[in-house]
Each structure stands twice: as structure tokens, then as C-alpha cells.
Design brief:
The protein is an alpha/beta fold. It is built from 14 helices and twelve strands. The strands form two sheets. It has a ten-stranded mixed beta sheet. It has a two-stranded antiparallel ribbon with strand order 11-12. β1, α1 and β2 form a beta-alpha-beta unit.
């Protein structure tokens, strides 16, 4: 109902698409999405139908409150659908565009890329995100195929094909208990391989056996559920970020983009960061499964966070409705006392709610497990961020900090 719509013009409507559900040709040990198939174990085919693709494309475009529309294809492994599926998707986008400017992005492990795929991606200006965790031994530690074999060589072959065809790409890297101990080797790998934009995702998971066969914990599970052995520790995460930041701030500002640092600077400058992870509110990006079920967030595909189905409710009502609004506001409202007292709350906003299963110094629940690492990192970068914010206030480039560090006109504490 229209009366359920709360703030329809405050932000674009954004939905991640899962055209093959959680199906994937790899079996990365820490994958949080592979087990989502168990939510749909009663259904045989876990692929998006042509009818649903048609309906979503029309509804998604016409539900937008802004001219720009971004289709984001995710998984599982979205390349497990044939190229013909995506050609059909673009045909429908053109058919229903109605004056909108439409863009597409694809998150893939890269192992299934071919010349034909890359020609399509280049011709249609798709942005490609590649999931890769650094040099070969780092990546192959946890990113393996169904037979337990390594995947790094095939991923690198995919990156080589993207570069060959001039496809715009960036990297999404998971930081785990292993590669977190080698921050500069990790960082330099991406620079040396032509990556211009790097997204860092710290992996934190807890293990709880559920009745339906899922084994990863939700926020509703006990706070003392054991951590998975691949999880990065708060100390590792803080040290990792500091080491990379010190390299970046001296040599790479404005040349190489690390999403975490960009988001921190945005928060320092009082601008909404590029991703919800470091925003004051979340819920800006829903996710739609292969059968039309819509959930509040990619990290909250659990029954209690289901908003509805596109066949029985509109995207507009689901993503702008009261339930999603409550989910969005809960990120800030659920912060424990320690966070509210913290000088750096404005910079991290408690990070992702899925990691808030620790207790604060007052014994209150809801503290982010990685808080200690984030606090050390933020305390370290504060003077640099203050300087770069001053540059932005003067309408000067933040990259000036590199020269200031070289000539000694700026010295960090």
C-alpha cells in the first residue's frame, strides 16, 4: 500500500540479482552464500526464469526515483548462466528503459571468462568485479573448486582476458586469518596486476548447526557461538589496515583506490560513503533470489529478513516499506554504549551489523567483533584524514598529502 512508503526520494532503489541462486563452480571455504541453497531445498531448478527476468527488469526500472539505474549481477557464480541470458537481459533493459540511463555490473570469480564473454562485456560497458584474495598461496588457501583443487591460475587467466579486451574491472578481496599477516605483499600484488580499485572484506563467521542444514550463525544465534577458523582477528585486521594505509597515503592517494580508505575519508568529510558497511544506516541494497524472493540485504538472506516476493508485492513497497525502514534504522539504533561514546563512531558507524556479536566494556551486547582493530586503525589515520579533509574543504586534492609527507610540511603524530 502507498501508505507504507516512508521516504521514496531519499536514495535510489538498488537490488542485487541472483540469477543462479548460490550455485557456483567453486567451493570457497568461507563462502557465506553457498549454503543459502538449503533455504530452497524443496525446489529443483535454482535459476531465474525468462519470465521473472522480464518482470524484474520492467518493475525495477519503473520503480526508480532517479534517472540512473544499476543492474548488479551476483551469485553464487553468475557466469553459470549462458551469455544468451545476459543478452536477453540487455534487450529487456533497452525495451523498458523509458529514458533511464542503465548500467550493469557483474561480480564473478573470473574462472569462466572467455574471449566471447569479454567481448560482450567490453561492447556493453559492463563493470566487472573479480573475487581474488591476492597472490597464489593466499588465494588458494581457501578459494578452491568442488574437487578441492586450486583456482588462482584460472582466475588470473580471466583477469588477463579482461585486460586483453579492455574491460573495466576491479577486485574484491577477502581478508582472512592467513593473508592478513602479509599486508604489503597482498597490497602490492593488486597494484602490480593493474587493479585500480580494491574492495577489502574482512571475513568473520561463527559456526552454528541449524535444523535445515545451514551452519553459519545469524545475529539471532548465541553470542558465544564459536568462530570459524578462517576468521580474521581484530588485531590482525587493525594491523593489516594500518600497514596498507601507510603505504597508500605516501604513494598512492588519487592513483589507487582502496574502498575502505575512500569510505573513511567520506565520513571524515561528512559525505555518505560509497557502501552501506560504513554508513550510518544500512538497507540501501536489497537482494532478489532466482525465484523472486526479496531480502533486506545480501548478508541477511534468512527467513526473518525476507521482505516478500516480486510476484505478490512491488519492489517499491518492499524496498521503501516500513519493514526495510526499520531494518535500515536499526544499524544506528542498536549501537551499544561504548560505540555511542567513541570519538570514531562517525567514521565506522559500527561497521556491518552481521559482525556485532561481541559485548562492549559495559557488558552490553551489539559491539562489533572487529572493534578493537578498527579503533586502532582509526586512531592511527586520524591526523592524515584531518589533513585530507582540510584539503577538500579548500577544494584542493587530498593527494597533496603525499608531497606534504615528503617535504615534511605535514607530520603525523
Amino acid at each position: 500500500m502507498a501508505t507504507e512508503i516512508l521516504h521514496p526520494f531519499s536514495r535510489p532503489l538498488y537490488v542485487l540479482l541472483k540469477p543462479v541462486d548460490a550455485s557456483c563452480n567453486l567451493r570457497c571455504k568461507y563462502c557465506y552464500y553457498l549454503e543459502k541453497q538449503k533455504l530452497y531445498s524443496a525446489q529443483d531448478k535454482h535459476i531465474m526464469s525468462d519470465a521473472l527476468l522480464d518482470k524484474f527488469t520492467y518493475d525495477y526500472i519503473h520503480a526508480q526515483t532517479m534517472q540512473e539505474v544499476l543492474f548488479t549481477w551476483h551469485g553464487g557464480e553468475p557466469l553459470m548462466r549462458p551469455l544468451s541470458f545476459y543478452k536477453r537481459a540487455m534487450q529487456l533493459q533497452r525495451q523498458y528503459a523509458d529514458g533511464h540511463i542503465i548500467a550493469n555490473s557483474l561480480q564473478t570469480n573470473g574462472t569462466m571468462l572467455t574471449d566471447e564473454w569479454c567481448e560482450f562485456l567490453k561492447q556493453n560497458n559492463w563493470l566487472v568485479g573479480i573475487s581474488i584474495d591476492g597472490p597464489q598461496d593466499f588465494h588458494d588457501e581457501y578459494r578452491r573448486n568442488a574437487q578441492g583443487g586450486p583456482s588462482w591460475v584460472k582466475v588470473m587467466r580471466g583477469i588477463k582476458l579482461l585486460k586483453k579486451h579492455g574491460v573495466q574491472w576491479n577486485a574484491m578481496a577477502v581478508v582472512n586469518d592467513y593473508n592478513a599477516d602479509y599486508p604489503l605483499e597482498f597490497y602490492n600484488f593488486f597494484k602490480e596486476n593493474g587493479c585500480q580499485y580494491l574492495q577489502l572484506t574482512p571475513i568473520v563467521e561463527r559456526i552454528v548447526e541449524h535444523a535445515d542444514g545451514r551452519h553459519l550463525a545469524t545475529l539471532g544465534d548465541s553470542d558465544d557461538a564459536p568462530l570459524a577458523d578462517f576468521s580474521v582477528t581484530p588485531e590482525q585486521w587493525g594491523d593489516f589496515l594500518i600497514a596498507i594505509f601507510d603505504e597508500w597515503v605516501r604513494h598512492d592517494v588519487g592513483r589507487f583506490y582502496v574502498e575502505t580508505f575512500d569510505c573513511m575519508l567520506a565520513n571524515w568529510a561528512g559525505v555518505d560513503p560509497g557502501i552501506c558497511m560504513y554508513g550510518k544506516e544500512c538497507g540501501h541494497a536489497g537482494v532478489m533470489e532466482y525465484n523472486g524472493d526479496v531480502y533486506s540485504c545480501d548478508h541477511f538472506v534468512f527467513p526473518e529478513y525476507k521482505l516478500g516476493n516480486i510476484y505478490t508485492s512491488t519492489l517499491y513497497n518492499m524496498l521503501y516499506g516500513e519493514k526495510q525502514h526499520r531494518f535500515s534504522q536499526l544499524k544506528h539504533k542498536s549501537l551499544p554504549q561504548q560505540c555511542l561514546e567513541c570519538d570514531y563512531e562517525f567514521a565506522c558507524h559500527g561497521e556491518c551489523p552481521k559482525n556485532r556479536f561481541a559485548r562492549d566494556r559495559y557488558g552490553n551486547p551489539g559491539l562489533n567483533y572487529l572493534c578493537k582493530g578498527y579503533h586502532r586503525f582509526l586512531d592511527h589515520i586520524a591526523p592524515y584524514m584531518d589533513y585530507m579533509k582540510q584539503q577538500l574543504d579548500r577544494k584542493q586534492p587530498p593527494a597533496a598529502i603525499m608531497q606534504a609527507l615528503r617535504d615534511g610540511t605535514f607530520k603525523a603524530k
